[in-house]
């Protein structure tokens, strides 16, 4: 691919180059037009002189003894010869040259010369000439008939006049073009001044100052100011959420780490074997809680990052749910858990991020198994024209209705039927809520009529396509 190192790097330079190219193109067109009309004007001016001289020559024809003769009009011919070399020729009705240069080219159509002067271009004695021919009927001649008078003039004076007029007009066009480009440069520089002022305002700001940019700017720059303020607003929201998350994470980690430290201290001083074993088991449980909390904190940060950075793609929700279900059931440890999977179609497509969706579904199943103490879980995927739903139904106690909103907020520990829960991080369903928001969906809870508790994830269908409802 060719590189254009000569192309200006600044907006002023690029705009001014474009203006200069437009002005230069217009100036070239005007110069060509001016040259054409200068040639036409000089042609008309000299044709009038040439026609006048030809008419005077024709008027000075006379007949003497039945023979055509000419008394050359010296004044008329000398007027033309002041600028160029002049030639003439007189031909009688018999076609004989009675005066002038016999080899001077005549008109191609003699009939038109009888109506008035007829002009033509040609060459004579190696030079370009302009000829004018006129006919005069000589009744006294023997025989009577039309005599043709041809006067030729070289074109040096015409060309000189054309050049003089063209040069004057070209000089004016050049001056106007330079003035236009200079004025455009000043106008562009003045028009770009608000951008430089905005740049100075932003550069002088403290990194922690995320207030919107407020500056009196032309309406054409309002869109740019709006985009900058929108970016600053999103950045402020991201930083606020990050600061809140860090503060919450520090608060949540402080308690289990302190408990872990205390348990290690007690374990190191315990001498009774039975109590030593109990304290060791408690230490293992605390370590497990710390590991789970750390993992969920990292998963929550990962989900937030992927929400804004990773584009969505077509995902088979039925296949993904089967895979996640197969990986999650071993979390039930030694409990005998009954699992069922149902789908309205072999393939159910949505627009999504597979990694975030796996994390969300894993958290729903994790809550049902470890916190809901469920031993019967049914995962259902259903596709309609309006939406795609994934429902996880279990036979656990579920979450009380008055705590459904709180369950979706980070670090809210809600146990079965709304009881206070002392284990877990309270991040599981918050991760699910973040994933569904990123996918344009929603999270709902329900108590099915047949009993148990259900978590319903609702997605918009991918590209409006719904697979055929073929049960599996």
TrEMBL record:
<feature type="domain" description="HAMP">
    <location>
        <begin position="189"/>
        <end position="240"/>
    </location>
</feature>
<feature type="transmembrane region" description="Helical">
    <location>
        <begin position="169"/>
        <end position="188"/>
    </location>
</feature>
<keyword id="KW-0812">Transmembrane</keyword>
<keyword id="KW-1133">Transmembrane helix</keyword>
<dbReference type="InterPro" id="IPR050428">
    <property type="entry name" value="TCS_sensor_his_kinase"/>
</dbReference>
<dbReference type="GO" id="GO:0016740">
    <property type="term" value="F:transferase activity"/>
</dbReference>
<dbReference type="InterPro" id="IPR013727">
    <property type="entry name" value="2CSK_N"/>
</dbReference>
<keyword id="KW-0597">Phosphoprotein</keyword>
<keyword id="KW-0808">Transferase</keyword>
<dbReference type="InterPro" id="IPR036890">
    <property type="entry name" value="HATPase_C_sf"/>
</dbReference>
<dbReference type="InterPro" id="IPR005467">
    <property type="entry name" value="His_kinase_dom"/>
</dbReference>
<protein>
    <recommendedName>
        <fullName>histidine kinase</fullName>
        <ecNumber>2.7.13.3</ecNumber>
    </recommendedName>
</protein>
<feature type="domain" description="Histidine kinase">
    <location>
        <begin position="248"/>
        <end position="463"/>
    </location>
</feature>
<dbReference type="Pfam" id="PF00512">
    <property type="entry name" value="HisKA"/>
</dbReference>
<dbReference type="Pfam" id="PF02518">
    <property type="entry name" value="HATPase_c"/>
</dbReference>
<keyword id="KW-0902">Two-component regulatory system</keyword>
<dbReference type="InterPro" id="IPR036097">
    <property type="entry name" value="HisK_dim/P_sf"/>
</dbReference>
<dbReference type="InterPro" id="IPR003660">
    <property type="entry name" value="HAMP_dom"/>
</dbReference>
<keyword id="KW-0418">Kinase</keyword>
<dbReference type="InterPro" id="IPR003594">
    <property type="entry name" value="HATPase_dom"/>
</dbReference>
<dbReference type="Pfam" id="PF08521">
    <property type="entry name" value="2CSK_N"/>
</dbReference>
<dbReference type="InterPro" id="IPR004358">
    <property type="entry name" value="Sig_transdc_His_kin-like_C"/>
</dbReference>
<keyword id="KW-0472">Membrane</keyword>
<dbReference type="InterPro" id="IPR003661">
    <property type="entry name" value="HisK_dim/P_dom"/>
</dbReference>
